[in-house]
Structure formats: C-alpha cells, structure tokens
Amino acid sequence: MIKGISQAGLGSISTEELVRSARKYGFGAVDINTDILIADHGLEGTRRLLEDHHVIVGSIGLPVEWRQTDAIFREQLTSLAVTAYHASFLGCKSCCTYILPATDELPATYMAQSIVRLRQIASILDAYGIRLGLEFVGPHHLRTAWKHPFIHTVADTLTMIDGIDRSNVGLLVDAYHCYTTEFTADDIRQLRAEQIVHVHINDAKDVPLDQVLDNDRLYPAEGVIDLPAFLQALQDIGYTGVVTQEILTPESPSDSTSLLWERSQRGFDHVFRNISTL
Amino acid sequence: MIKGISQAGLGSISTEELVRSARKYGFGAVDINTDILIADHGLEGTRRLLEDHHVIVGSIGLPVEWRQTDAIFREQLTSLAVTAYHASFLGCKSCCTYILPATDELPATYMAQSIVRLRQIASILDAYGIRLGLEFVGPHHLRTAWKHPFIHTVADTLTMIDGIDRSNVGLLVDAYHCYTTEFTADDIRQLRAEQIVHVHINDAKDVPLDQVLDNDRLYPAEGVIDLPAFLQALQDIGYTGVVTQEILTPESPSDSTSLLWERSQRGFDHVFRNISTL
Amino acid sequence: MIKGISQAGLGSISTEELVRSARKYGFGAVDINTDILIADHGLEGTRRLLEDHHVIVGSIGLPVEWRQTDAIFREQLTSLAVTAYHASFLGCKSCCTYILPATDELPATYMAQSIVRLRQIASILDAYGIRLGLEFVGPHHLRTAWKHPFIHTVADTLTMIDGIDRSNVGLLVDAYHCYTTEFTADDIRQLRAEQIVHVHINDAKDVPLDQVLDNDRLYPAEGVIDLPAFLQALQDIGYTGVVTQEILTPESPSDSTSLLWERSQRGFDHVFRNISTL
Amino acid sequence: MIKGISQAGLGSISTEELVRSARKYGFGAVDINTDILIADHGLEGTRRLLEDHHVIVGSIGLPVEWRQTDAIFREQLTSLAVTAYHASFLGCKSCCTYILPATDELPATYMAQSIVRLRQIASILDAYGIRLGLEFVGPHHLRTAWKHPFIHTVADTLTMIDGIDRSNVGLLVDAYHCYTTEFTADDIRQLRAEQIVHVHINDAKDVPLDQVLDNDRLYPAEGVIDLPAFLQALQDIGYTGVVTQEILTPESPSDSTSLLWERSQRGFDHVFRNISTL
C-alpha cells in the first residue's frame, strides 16, 4: 500500500506545496486537482514536478456533476476526456466520486439514472485506463438528510456497481464510512482487492455510532476506529493501492502547516507500524 | 400491426384451442405458453400446428422469477435458454414481464438488482434473437399496495431500460397502463417503433381514474379508453408488431367460448376499423 | 426520407454557402463539418443559421482517427464529447465513419481493436443522443489495396456492430457500396430501419463491376445503379432519415456551383420521383 | 496457489478416481467434467464427494462449441446455464476454452463473431459467479495448420478480451503456450492477478522452439521450461488460484496410474519447492 495525502486536513496548503512536501513527511501519493498544477506548469511540467518530488497522483475527483439535470450532466461531461487524458499522462489510474445515502428524488428512478450516467463516465475514463471509485457514505445523520433513503452499505454499492456493468468501476473504501456502517475488517476480507479502487483513512470521535458526524473527523490514530485492523485486512486481500488521509472538519485546522504535516505523519506511522507498505 | 389473442378474456379455453380458432376470429397471433403445446406435439409438431392454423406466437411470458431471492433467480434462469431456443424455433421474437409499481424492498437497491437480473435475462434471450418487453403497470391502487413506490411511468421504464443497457430490451405498451398513467396518443408519437417490443389492448370502466382496478378490465371498445387513437399513434410511428388482447377480470367470464371469441373479434374490428393492419 | 447534400460533388462551395442554398435546390439536410460554422457564428448563431435556412444537419464526420496508434486515438478522443455536445445542440443525431475493406494489420487483432475503439466512441456519442453509422466500402480495387482482406459486406459489418455491442451503432448504407457488393434492394428489405443510421447516394459508371472505382462516382440518375429501387426498399422498411449525395471524383468538378446544384437537384428529383418523401 | 490435477497425464484414470486420490498426492484441486460425477452421485452427492476428499474443482471445460455454425452454437448454449448452476453449487468459479492460432474462416469476421459468442457465454456464466478463461495457444506448427493466422499472443488475447467486454473474462495461462510464444516471467509480472482465470503447467522437450509440438508435452520439471520462474512471477503478482497439470501426449502413457501420480507429484514438488502455496 502507498501512503497518500490530500489537502483535507492540512489547512490552507496549496496543491503545489502539497506535492513538494509529501515525500518529506512519508507520503508517496497526493490526491489533488491536477488542473491547478497544469495551469501553472503545463502538462509535461506537471509530470516533471511529480517525478522530481517522488510522488504519484493517488486519485483525482470526478469533475462531472452527475446528480443534477441532464443538461448540466451533458455539459460537464464534455471535459471529462481531457481530464482523463491528462490524468493518464500523469500516471494517475483512479478517479472518485461519492454517493449520498439519501435523496430528494424517487430512489428507484434516481438509481436507474445514476447507473446510466456513471456508466457513461466510466466508459470515458476506461478509454484512458482510469478506474472509477464509488464512495459509499455512512454517517447516520446523512441517511435522513434528504427525503428518501438511497444506499449506504458496501453490499448495495456493489449491487449498484454490478448495475453500472463496466469493469473499471469499484469501491472507494473510506475507514470512516466502514466504521459508521459497521463494515468490519472481516467484511473487508470478503472483498477481492480488484474491487477496491481507492482507500481513505481518518478517525472518529468517541461518541455513539449514530451521532458520528461526517464533517467532524479526526486524524488517524486519534480516535476510536481500529485502523490497524482495517489496513491489515486490506493488506491481507492483496490491496496494493493508495491509502489517502481525508480529514473533514467543521473549520479548517488553525495549526501551522508543518504541525499538521507532522500530525498526519505521526498518525500514519502509528496505524501502519505493523503493516508492510511499498 | 397484427391482431393477437390470449387466454385472458376467453374463459377456460385451452392453449391448443386458442391456436386452432384464432385465425377464424380474425387474429393472426397468439400469446401462449409454448411449453404446453410442445409437451403434446413436440417442437416440430408445434411449429406445424401454428403454421397449419396460420398464426404466429406474439409473445411468451418470461419463465424466470426475477423479483425474489438470488437462489430462486439462479435456479429458474437455468431453463431460460431452452425456452428461448424453442421460442426462436417457433418464430417467436418477444418475451415479456411486468414491473410492479411498488415494492416492499428498498427501491434504490431493488432497482439496481432488477437491472442486473433483467440484463442477464436479456443477454440469454438475445442469443436467440428474442427481445425482452417490460410492462409498466399503471393502476393507482397498486402504487401503494407495497411499502415503497417503485416506477410506473413510461419515462421511468425507459430510464430503467437504459440502465439495463441491452439493445434487445424495450417496452410492453398496454393500453390500460397508458390510460391509468395518462400516457396519451401524442406521447406514444414521441416514441420510436423499435422501443416497443409488444402491445396489449383492453378497455377501462367509466370510473374516476384513480379508482380503475388492474383486475377489472373490459373488452376493447366496451369502455372509455380511446383505443383507435392509441392504435393510430402506434401505426403512425411505424409499429408493425402484435397487439394482443389481455382482459384481466375478478372472475373468469361465464359466457361460452364462442361468445367470448365473437366479443373479442367485435371489439378488435371496432377499434381497428380505421387502422390499416398487416 | 429527407434529401441531403454535401460538399462532395458541389465543387469548391463553402460550408456556409451549402447551408444557405440547400433548401432552394430541394434539400432539407446538409452533411457538414459544424466546427467551421461554429467558428464563424458561435453555437447559437449556427443553430439560427440552420433554422433560418430550413435545413438540418444530416450527419457529421467522426473527428477521431481510430485506425492508427493508441496514442493518436486517445488524444483525438478528447475532443469527441465537445463535438457531440455541439452536434446535439444543433439537432444532429448521427455521426459516421467508414471501414476500409483491407488492412496492413493482422485482421483478427485489428478487428478486436477496432471493436474496442468504436465502442468507446459510441459510448461518448450515446451520452449526447447521437448514433454512430459505419460505412462498409465495396469497390473491388480497395479490397486488395492493403495486405489482408478485412470486411466489406453488410453481413460482416452487422457482425462487427454486434461485436461493438452498443445500441446506438448502425449502418451507413451507401448506394455505391451496395452496388459494388451486390447488396440488392431485396437485401435492404431484410434490414430493419433502425439498423440504418444514414444513407448516401450517387451513381456508378457502366463498367464491369470489379472495375468500378471508389473515387469515380456519378451524380444520381447519371449511371447504372437502380436508385429508385434502392430508395423504394429503404422506404418500404420504414427508413425516414436523411439520404445524402456524396460524389467522389478524381478531380473537383469544373462546372459552376449553380450548375452543380441544378445537376444534383435534377438527379434527386429523378430518382425520388416515385418515392414519397417527408 | 493451489496445485491442481487433470486426467491429461494420468493415463486411463476415471474422474472419480482422480477426485479420490488427488489429495493423497498433494493436489488440492481437480479439473474435471462434473457431469460424470453428477450422473453417478447426484449434485449434492458430488459436493460431498469433493468435500470428503478435500479437493475443489479447479476449472471445468466449456461445454459449448462456439467455433462452428450459429445453429450448433445456439443449440449447445441451451445447456450452459445448467452446467454453470451445477458448477456454482460445487464451488467451482472457472470455466475455460482455448483459441486456435489459425482459422479457415476470414479472420476479421471470425474475430467479430467469436467476440459476440464468447460474450453470450460469459454473460450466462456471470449469472452464476463463474469466470471464463481463454487459453491462447502457442506452438508454431498450429499457427499454419489452417489457412489464415488468427491470434496466439497474450497481447492479442487481451485485446480480444477487451472486445468481449465482460468483466468475468480473463486468461488461461498455460506454461507451454507462454514458452512457445516467448512470454516470459517478466511479462507475466506486467499482468494483474485478476486478469488470470486459470493456469496450466507442463514441460517442453529440448527441441528448437519452432518445433515444439502441442501434443508432445512433458511432466513438470522434466523439460526445458523454467517453471519455478513462471510460478514465482504468478506468485509475485498475487495470483492465488489453481495451477493444473495438463500433459498432452501422442499416446496415453503406459505406466501404472500410481507411477503417473508419483511422477506428477514429484514434478510439482520440484517446481513449487521454493514457492509458497496455499
């Protein structure tokens, strides 16, 4: 597995600074918006920047809004192939999006439509060798934040992925969402490594499970999630991809960037200390 | 268009009798369970029986229960290729199933799972040149007969068909369900003929729309549905397939079979009288 | 059917002039490179231009080179969604490419690779409601113009389309290629209208069939192809799309543009005179 | 990896005897025709027989002839779902077929048709959780045994698999075919484990590469193939499936069954001795 870092949890750090410092703090991958670097450095310049700083791009966010109208979807889809082409040039093999656990739409129709649109997205990504990771979202409060329940479990997400029916679609497994949906390390062991496109880690406060808030996460090793068991299970099934920190908090952390780097590094060192990494 | 007949509305008529009498009453197609004939006549004998009586098989019912457990689905699926092979040998090109407008399952998951299973069904049928027709079901009382709404409109059924993503899947358009979902002749004109796999006709009682019962249908031309407009719209978009009578009633009609044949013929003659048929 | 015109056969006419004059000479559709108009008039301006001159876009050419290296393919594919989005905005529903009847590559591998790439193209077009038409190419001299035979018949093209397995892929039926592959009007009647994405007409010189040259075509009604029978067969199966003139010649015709328009109009009037058109 | 055994190389041993003795000689899997056992023991009885003798079914042969006419294909396809259902019940997850490196058909058409048929096969298997393994065939003499070259390399087989476009299709990697196509251990390391459905081992005589005959194989460790390197590469990429012995010879070996078992065991022990197995 490769340790990855994102801006979520590092305060107001720029994309470029993230790239420049990641290796120093023990991270081999960055989850970034590559467009920002390409605007400044060009495509070839961005590739060199990544190489010079010995990091790969772990995953990019999906730049297409697939949850709203057809008109918005079709317009935004026009740029996806360019994004995929750039990502592919930079060696990135993964693009991720999340699935909210509730919806104001009628769920049956919304599911069918989501399947159609995510398939179109996956087809374009596939032409560039990029996989699409779908992140199930676990916190209980979000399950009732919209009118109707949608899906929030791994089982249902895998069924949705079967519905999409493209071989380059898989799971984004986030430790926080595993925790809030009670998807255990043993459950992870029932997956095959190739079903997992990307992994997020972070930690949860010691509050009752149904009060864990999506936007109130801790750094790895600072909370109650058994992250070593989580990582060991991923290791056991042969997952060799990126594991990226994503710390969503109500407010941006006020510590200095270097303190946040150190905190992140310390957390990763702790939870990975008994796991072999690449 | 080809006039078709089924046992639903003809009392206790046998499958073979349906075949033997259809042409005499003006019908060129029968919707039947071909297994019953094959058991008695063999496959080649059934083909000859159909030819001798100048009727084709309009559509067969899907012999796979796709709405329950995986175990039931997988077991029943084993027989589908044989059914499809037989149907294909008999010249039948269509197999139909219906989609209930409500469900006790969580609708999002149920949609994803239905898409996966109907795709597997469609793939097998496709190997034998047979299309899968999905019948949306309109009556209002059924929309609340189970816990959660599923889908009941043409638009949603087309989205589901997009989700299934097999080119041999389309609509079964039933006049009763068009009537109860207020899908008009002008709406039909927005469809392309190849989106329609099969058509049912029957008529509705003169009661408020939300009190029309699924199981209380009338013979064509005996109720309030504008069937000539319905048929003309199908004709206008180039639909050349079968239009089969399907009369669901609380109890089997008590009239003699010959009276029921005549009543069916009269209804068809009336609603088709200004429409050219093949 | 809708009469369509292209620049091929009208000398040095500009795209805009083609649009402005088409209706005057009886054509309801133009096959053009829409980018040229969009560069001058913007997207909305191009839509108005087409509307003001009462023509639709019959088909656009595929802007992706899918016959060469992966690198070229992937780079060119990046622009397809934008092209499709524009075409869709302009009301165009069809995009076409041709398949050469021979290849220097090993045919089995080349077929598999072509299937993969054309599927990726079709998936992108499908997100914008645009179909992909594949033109089989008949002239005998081209069948040996490269090392190995590839495909040139309708039957093989349909098998390839099955291989691609996207419901928005169909045939471009060119009268010249039907003639040179001896695909008759009766053969056309075995097709279903929805299998045909687009149609080309033009005529052939009175030379032995195996000496008909791809690049030496005549205007409709000036040669030996029975175009009325060809069109009648398309009409009989319910084809209601565009039929575009495409005259490939060794040198650009030297007549004035207005003479070439009149010659095209005369040819269409002649071959369509007993066929009802929209 | 799990050591597997088949009848090919064990003389006239029966299927049941193979099952009964495999574990004794160190094999954890058998590649068999399960129908033979089911005929004798019933489905549940066969499951017990396998369990009692501590072996799993490594892979079954594809019971559908997909290389001949449509009529033969469609007829044989009718039984596939039953076979898949049985295999699934018995815990088998793989079904394999081979691809000849030459063909009397025109290769382009044959490839498109093979893609269509293998997709239909894969769709049925997928409904039962079974993968389809495609075996590329390397010996030089077979490349010219029919009129036209088809495919024989891993690269081309992977392109064909992309063409088939079903996520449950992958490679059967046979050491003999790797050797004869010069697909090295380092080349195997470029594959992902999930691309490999099944593995065969056997050994080759010390003759020039282009004179290695398909039907003249040796037992593992008796020839010139570097099987330890082959197995180590599979181990390195995380392949955890079955590796089955398949010894094709001009005549059935004349040694006693027990000698052939011992010879097989000795070969496996030798080539696996530095590889950890499950």
TrEMBL record, chains A, B, C, D:
Positions of transmembrane segments: none
UniProt domain Xylose isomerase-like TIM barrel: residue ranges: 20-251
One Pfam match: AP_endonuc_2
Cross-referenced InterPro entries: IolE/XylAMocC-like (IPR050312), Xyl_isomerase-like_sf (IPR036237), Xyl_isomerase-like_TIM-brl (IPR013022)
Swiss-Prot/TrEMBL keywords: Isomerase
The organism's place on the tree of life at top rank: Bacteria
Molecular functions per Gene Ontology: isomerase activity
Full protein name: Sugar phosphate isomerase/epimerase
Organism: Paenibacillus kyungheensis
